[in-house]
Amino acid sequence: MSLLGHPVGYSRNSYRPTTWHGRPVWRFEEDFHLQLGANASFSTRTIQYVRSDGSQLETIASRDDPTEKTVTDALFTGRTIQARLTGTPLGQTGAKISRKTVKITIPKDVTLAPETPYEIDPAQIRPGKVIGEWTFDTDKLKLEKQVATVGKPESVDLPGKGAVKTWKLKVQTLGEPDNYFVWIDSDGGAVKVDLPLRGFDVIGLLTPVSEVGHPHPYVPVWKPSPGGPISAIPVILHPRDANVLDLTITGAPASLKVPSDGPQTVVERGPGVVDISVATPGRAAQDLATLLSGSTRPQPPIVKPPVTGATVLANDVRTTMLASTEDINASSPEIISAAQKLTRGAHTTLQKCMILRDWVNKRMKEDSHVPVIRTAAQIMKDPRGVCRDYATLYAALARAAGIPTRVCVGMLYSSGGFWGHAWDESWTGEWTPVDATMDGHFVDATHVKLAQGDTSAAMEQGGAALTSLADSHAQLQVEWVQPEDSPH
Fold this sequence. Notes:
With 488 residues, this protein is of the alpha+beta class. Helix content is 16%, strand content 41%.
């Protein structure tokens, strides 16, 4: 699987004949792993025992994410499902193991779909065709109906096969906002999927294989591929304390255009060589110049430290950064009301920013199962998501409070490399970085922005920049200075 052109994980599926309580059955197993950040990974493993007609006998599903490990065991007897879910909290001292047991009667008019991955009957492949099927959700412990709508034919390039004619299916669970896409070939088997996970589009190309005796000859397989960040050297030992970062990108593609304003200064030193300097606001320019003077990186005369003392924002920029847009809909009555209530009594713009940041940080719940695009108003009503959702909601609240604000998309250093991340910058007399996702008010200098503006545009431009860095195998050389009074 890939995110923005970079491998981030894998999924492997397999069928084989076996026995279940003495009777011959088929055993289906799927292993799934996704790594989108240092603290944003999860894995699932599903084992299903099915009859030759594809109907289920037992499903054992496990899921691991940064906060919890769950295991569900579901037995299918006649028209009854008996399931037990056990949840074990991770990294929480004294937290208790949770258990939940349900018994569900399957309605007479409901037929559970055979658990064959990403397949449909070839006879149903025609544009506009709507296909509905019922499944049992092992996380929510309930029956759900999924509806797939067949789209127009599209061509998909497959490794070793070239262009293949496919039909794009939009799949949605009734009552849920999420959806995903599957591209199927003329045999009804999937060749590509597009999943909204961890707030990004994760793309997987599926390779068909045949197994002797397999009741369904098309089995999708994702080859394992190493996931991880864009690596950088040397290792930054205390990235959350860094208030000055010197970064040189060697082998940068010509298409890479990095913003140079606010706390970040960018100089293109030559073909494929880009120097980026990031300094947290508040340090005097002469102090910053002293800190950077020890860098071993060649610095031409045009390299200057970021200017942090500006007090005037151009009228057109102010208007744009206060506007209510499709993503950052700051004119929403709920958002206006919350912004006014929260900032009432605040004496400075910076104080307003920190109040709004803290509110978003406490109100939001990290959740990867969200659509790729949501507006601030939608997030306000359903406060869950990933860094992009935190940044979108904060930007809307800040603009509603009269504070020019933009969403930033770029890289954040953690666990040996730079991961994709989103945060904000608000105008407080200078562009001040605000990260509602992270704990604390201090935004370290390893926040390297690749795009800025409204959410959709910043995500698209930032994604293209990350893709170009990954595809070009650019080298990132880091030199940094930790503030003297930072805690260790």
